[in-house]
Amino acid sequence: MNIINVNPNLIDEMPSRGGLAYENANIKTFRLENFAEIEVTTFGIQNWDEPGDFYKVSLSSDDASIGEFSNLNGWETGNTRSRIKELINNHSLVENDRFIVLDMGSNHYVLVLFGYPYASIPPFLTIISFAANESNVVFNKNFELQEIMSEDKLYIRGIYKENLHQIFLEQGQLIFQPE
């Protein structure tokens, strides 16, 4: 199991703040082929009236934490927008309503989270690379996901700054480029 190399240019900061009380944990546990058991827990925030379905994601493997990520702008479930539900149902290796798990190739697994769209601003697309003992955010940008396709490798296609872009893995590095 491999973790994708981090390129800081592909990661826009996620707004966060300490001292928040999280609640309503939703837990999904799964095992991928030749991989340890992974538990993904998503949390809401107590007394929080902002849009978004969950604001914190925690990953653990065999009861050890491998990462925790917060986003005050919120992420959405597939119950919010039908397009997200369709993408999750058609592409995720794990059945759920909150994220997509993809094998980007060469045993590089990622968790894909969908941000909440504000007015005319596209939602954030957050991609977390994970392995049995660590995880990292490898992509976080305003990106309107259009499709996931597989040809000779897996491509994530969508709109970034009004232009079609693609995301794919090449030699352990996530590539983000216009089409």
Describe the structure.
This protein is mainly beta. The chain has one domain (21-178). The chain has one helix and twelve strands. The protein has one helix at residues 82-91, and strands at residues 22-31, 37-45, 54-61, 64-76, 100-103, 109-115, 124-130, 135-142, 144-150, 154-160, 163-170, 173-178. The strands form two sheets. Strands 1, 2, 3, 4, 5, 6, 7 and 8 form an eight-stranded antiparallel beta sheet that branches. Strands 9-10-11-12 form a four-stranded antiparallel beta sheet, with no helix packed on it. β2 (37-45) and β3 (54-61) form a beta hairpin. The longest helix is centred in the middle third of the chain and has 10 residues, at 82-91. It is globular.
Topology overview:
Blueprint: E1 22-31, E2 37-45, E3 54-61, E4 64-76, H1 82-91, E5 100-103, E6 109-115, E7 124-130, E8 135-142, E9 144-150, E10 154-160, E11 163-170, E12 173-178
Antiparallel strand pairs: 1-2, 2-3, 3-4, 4-6, 5-6, 6-7, 7-8, 9-10, 10-11, 11-12
Task: Note the main sheet.
Answer: 8 strands, antiparallel
Oligomer: single chain
What portion of residues is helical? under 10%
Element order, helices and strands?
EEEEHEEEEEEEE
Spans of at least 5 consecutive residues whose pLDDT stays below 50 are none
**Mean pLDDT across every amino acid position:** 88
Tell me the number of strands: 12
Radius of gyration computed on alpha carbons: 15 Å
What portion of the residues fall into strands of 2 or more residues?
Answer: over 45%
User: Looking at the structure, what is the overall shape?
Assistant: globular
The total tally of domains equals 1
Q: How far apart, in Å, are the first and last alpha carbons?
A: 29 Å
Number of helices: 1
Based on secondary structure, the structural category is mainly beta
